[in-house]
Amino acid sequence: MDLREHLLTHGFDHIDILLIDEHQNQTTVPDITLHKITELEYKLYLDPETIRYHLQEEDPYFVADQTDDDGEVKKVKGYILEWK
C-alpha cells in the first residue's frame, strides 16, 4: 500500500502536506486531492521504502527519506493538514 492509499484508507481526501526536514526547513505542498493524484511519493521526492506512518495520532504525520535537487538525502516529517 502506498502513501496515497494509506491516506485514503484513513479517511483523508483533500489535504495539504507540511514537510519539515531535519534542519527545520519547512515546505507546504498545498491543495492535494488524493483521488485525483498518482505516485504521491514520487511527486514529494520520497523513498517509498523508508516511509513510516503515524496516521492515528492527533496530528497525523509520516516520516521518510527525501532526495533534494542536489541528490542529497534527508529525513522529513510530513504533517497531514486536512481540509474540512
Written description of the protein model:
This protein is mainly beta and 84 residues long. It has one domain. Helices cover 13% and strands 43% of the residues. It has 2 helices and 5 strands, in the order αββαβββ. It has helices at 3-9, 40-43, and strands at 14-21, 26-33, 52-54, 61-67, 73-82. A 5-stranded antiparallel β-sheet has the order 2-1-5-4-3, with no helix packed on it. Strand 4 and strand 5 form a beta hairpin. The protein is globular and about 35 Å long. The mean pLDDT is 94.
What are its keywords?
mainly beta; 5 strands; five-stranded antiparallel beta sheet; globular; 2 helices; single chain; 84 residues
Choose one word for the global shape.
globular
Number of strands: 5
Question: What order do the strands of the largest sheet run in, or round the barrel if closed?
Answer: 2-1-5-4-3
N-to-C order of helices and strands: HEEHEEE
Q: What count of structural domains?
A: 1
Rg from alpha-carbon coordinates: 12 Å
Number of helices: 2
As a percent range, the share of strand residues is 35-45%
Category by helix and strand content: mainly beta
pLDDT average, as an integer? 94
Oligomer type: single chain
Summarize the structure.
This protein has 84 residues and is mainly beta. It has helices spanning 3-9, 40-43, and strands at residues 14-21, 26-33, 52-54, 61-67, 73-82. It has one domain (3-82).
